[in-house]
Amino acid sequence: MPASKAVAMNSADTHRSNDILCLAPNAAYQLTVLFDKITLGDVNRASMQTNSLGGKGQNFAVATKQYYKSADRVTLLQILGGPTGTQIEAMEDEQGFDYITVRTSLPTRTCTTCLDMSTGDMTEMVGVSGLIDEHAEEEYEQVATQILQSENPPRALALCGTFPPGLQSTTVSRIIQARTEKTLVFVDAVKDIHPVLESKCIDILKVNSGEVLNILSALEPAYQDKTPKDVDLAKVAMELGQRYSIGAVAVTDGPFTAYLANVQDNRAHAFSIPDLLKDREYFLGSDQAPQGHLVLNPLGAGDTCSAVMMNHMLDDKVMVEAFAAGLAAASASCLVPMPNCVFDRKVMERIRGKMTVREIM
């Protein structure tokens, strides 16, 4: 057994499970840079920058802490390597996150977000994820399985994000199948997801409008040339849920209407989201609303939605209200240029008050 493996397995042996075990294998060191104006082909000097945690699972943990003002609801199970991996752990320690790290040989990726204040445009540059070695993949599965099958398993398992090269979707599928009936399974992932879907162990799947079509287009040629505007997203979500025996499928569509298909009850709801730019003074307060272009930063908004929705479910909120709260938190996070997944609960509540929810099926 490699030394790194022994360290992680010993951590799992003594680890007390939190409410949520978050599978967060594809972390990132996130750099967000703000420019007064970006000129292509020229030297651009930033007016502000932040270094923060990145990756969908890490964002999930950040948003959960942001909502509850406590970091003890989530345990991150992550794969890190190199100097960037060390920096990520240092930030997690500073913010009080609970994590178990599986070490790999190659460095963890870096992601850079550039925000142009003159136009309101956002550009994201994602670095390369290093290949996960075979020992790290084996260790990741063993640690996750041991936690899920412990005497006190987590109340929920959240799978967040893409799988880095070397971590097979079949491995993740086995992890999910190792959970007991005590653990709710929440999935916010798309790439190579079919083996996970085929496990038929998913209680809630949260995807965006393009992702749900990508999943179905691999199964049905009729969906291959479709865009979200070409289909009834509620019916598409219901079809996907029925195909894989998923309890509920939540579909976001940026600032447009979101949908929740409760497959078990054969019911669906539509969620209309208010215009953030039009009503920004109301949401932010007239003294807080910036003048000129308002930079909307959608990065991490989907992860914020997942975190708040999942946590509301564990707080015994009905699913429709849990998803509405997640959408409101995600929208509020867009109004904070940096860092990702940070939001004001008062702003979230104002946005929720302006949302409309309709039963459509």
Automatic annotation (TrEMBL):
InterPro entries per record: PfkB_dom, Ribokinase-like
UniProt keyword annotations, A-Z: Kinase, Transferase
Domain of life: Eukaryota
Transmembrane segments: none
GO molecular function terms noted in the UniProt entry: kinase activity
Gene3D superfamilies: 3.40.1190.20
PANTHER family reported for this sequence: 1-PHOSPHOFRUCTOKINASE-RELATED, ATP-DEPENDENT 6-PHOSPHOFRUCTOKINASE ISOZYME 2
Name of this protein: Ribokinase-like protein
Protein's organism: Linderina pennispora
